[in-house]
Write a structure and sequence with these properties.
By secondary structure, this protein is an alpha/beta fold. 36% of the residues lie in helices and 15% in strands. The chain is built from 7 helices and 6 strands. Bound molecules: magnesium ion and zinc ion.
């Protein structure tokens, strides 16, 4: 049986955008996120996190800091009965990365490598899956991977920016709950 998944961006989508979040004590779930994920879970979706974390490559924080934050995110969701298949992160930056972190990689969104890894690892059905994120790079990654891609207005990029960039072809919602209602209908 094919499995469908929601590919979530993390910062500005699932948790409040803090710009280079490195302390687990700064993890705050976005508004109505738990209700949203229950709605999606009840509709049969599995969950994956795909996140650009160039703060690692820029030397703002370490992979260990990232892991601490990730464990806190996972714990807060688990408390409410929500599990993720896995999280995938890109630590690189094409110009600001230090040492080997400075590279034009394929994993940084809008690149699709991390999505492809998750699809392969968990045998997910792309045509039934959805990408949700707050930036145009999220939307572009999802579209390039061949899935429905939905914008939430809780992070960096505005409704207007997304409208212009994708010629009004991408659905955009004030928050994840509104996006989730759209996805399950
Ligand atoms: Mg984001
Ligand atoms: Zn990368």
């Amino acid at each position: 049986m094919s499995k469908k998944a929601i590919f979530f961006d993390r910062d500005g989508t699932l948790i409040v955008e803090k710009n280079y979040l490195k302390n687990s004590s700064d993890v705050i779930l976005e508004n109505r996120v738990i209700e949203s994920l229950h709605l999606l879970k009840d509709d049969g979706f599995l969950f994956v996190i795909i996140t650009n974390q160039s703060g690692i490559g820029r030397g703002y924080f370490t992979e260990e800091d990232y892991l601490d934050v990730h464990l806190e995110v996972v714990a807060q969701f688990r408390e409410h009965g929500i599990e993720f298949l896995d999280d995938y992160y890109c630590p690189h930056h094409p110009t600001k990365g230090i040492g080997s972190f400075k590279q034009e990689c394929l994993c940084r969104k809008p690149g699709t490598l991390l999505i492809e890894q998750a699809v392969k690892e968990f045998n997910l059905n792309i045509s039934e899956s959805v990408f949700v994120g707050d930036k145009s790079s999220d939307i572009q990654a999802g579209l390039s991977a061949g899935m429905l891609s939905v914008h939430v207005q809780t992070g960096h990029d505005s409704f207007d920016k997304i409208c212009k960039e994708f010629n009004g072809t991408v659905s955009s919602f004030p928050d994840l709950y509104e996006a989730s209602k759209f996805i399950v209908t």
